[in-house]
Amino acid sequence: MLKQLRNYLITGLIVLLPSIATIYIIVTVINIVDSALSPVVKILLGREVYGLGFIMTFILILVVGIIAKNMLGKRLIDFGERLLIRIPLVRTIYVTVRQLINALFLKNKTAFRDVVLVEYPRRGIYQLGFLTCKGVGEVQEKTSQEVVNVFIPTTPNPTSGMLILIPKDDITYLDMTVEQGLKLIVSGGTVAPEED
Known about the structure:
Distance between the termini: 52 Å
Number of strands: 5
Strand order of the largest sheet: 4-3-2-1-5
Largest sheet: 5 strands, antiparallel
């Protein structure tokens, strides 16, 4: 009975923790923005404006999203990230938080077994993909060759993409790790894997 109760508590915690953490971070950011801007707005307008922190946080997130969607913005973000990674203490915190966010948004990262190169959508054009598993069931029964499942992610958001079923002989295995492959995709090809 106690073991089952403990399992329920752990499951409930696992389900609630991402939501609670997200709400906490958003509320903290709104409070920081509100406390930074409220005195200035009070001086300019002569009164407090309620909800200013929420509005400004929303606008900030929207502007960063717009900037991040264009090529110049991606380069600026990549440049800023490289600067942060060079600062010893900040590097540790930043990399940890980034890995945590990746773990939350890329829930099943371990499903990617290998980084592969495939000629897709036609010969002579190469796509980076992640081998997920061998073709099984009806798919394998109805194909004359052994096929594998390859997930082709989109740039800069590797959580979306497409699944292709491709003959095993038509893929090229790469030496890079899954993490290096994800960095290459998220950066739009601007962050090449470091050679050992």
